[in-house]
Amino acid sequence: QVQLEESGGGSVKSGGWLKLSCGVSGNIPYICEMAWYRQPPGKAREWVSSIRNDDETTRYTDSVRGRFTISQDGAKKTLYLQMDNLKTEDTAAYYCAAKKCGMVAFTYWGQGTQVTVSS
């Protein structure tokens, strides 16, 4: 089992920044990929970014590429999402997710942290 807990959400003005954190505990070697998802108000949850645990390859959805940076600490116990130049459309609940090795889907999810960007 793996437990995930997000923190760092809040309210900022457009153009501002926030850094989200996700604490990872449990069977960490079991996990091959970590990701951030978000769910805007009234919309479906969407993938934002992911990072592979073996080679730290990162991927981003087009709308955040160049503004957001995903990273993790050396022990793979904390996942980060640095969000710069925030836009109102980035307003959403942000979720940390973990994928077990050999699986297609992300199996473990955090409770989410709210990010609100105002103009």
> What percent of the residues sit in helical stretches (DSSP H or I)?
under 10%
Total number of helices: 0
Radius of gyration: 14 Å
Unreliable runs: none
- Biggest sheet details: 7 strands, mixed
Q: Could you tell me the mean pLDDT? A: 96
Shape: globular
Strand fraction band? over 45%
Q: How widely separated are the two ends?
A: 40 Å
Q: Can you count the beta strands?
A: 11
Structure write-up:
The protein is an all-beta fold and 119 residues long. The chain has no helices and 11 strands. The protein has strands spanning 2-7, 10-13, 18-26, 31-39, 46-52, 58-60, 68-72, 78-83, 92-100, 108-109, 113-118. The protein is globular, with a radius of gyration of 14 Å. The model has no long low-confidence stretch (mean pLDDT 96).
Summary?
This protein is mostly beta strands and 119 residues long. 0% of the residues lie in helices and 55% in strands.
Comma- or semicolon-separated keywords:
seven-stranded mixed sheet; mainly beta; four-stranded antiparallel sheet; globular; 119 residues; 0% helix
Write the layout of secondary structure elements.
Blueprint: E1 2-7, E2 10-13, E3 18-26, E4 31-39, E5 46-52, E6 58-60, E7 68-72, E8 78-83, E9 92-100, E10 108-109, E11 113-118
Parallel strand pairs: 2-11
Antiparallel strand pairs: 1-3, 3-8, 4-5, 4-9, 5-6, 7-8, 9-10, 9-11
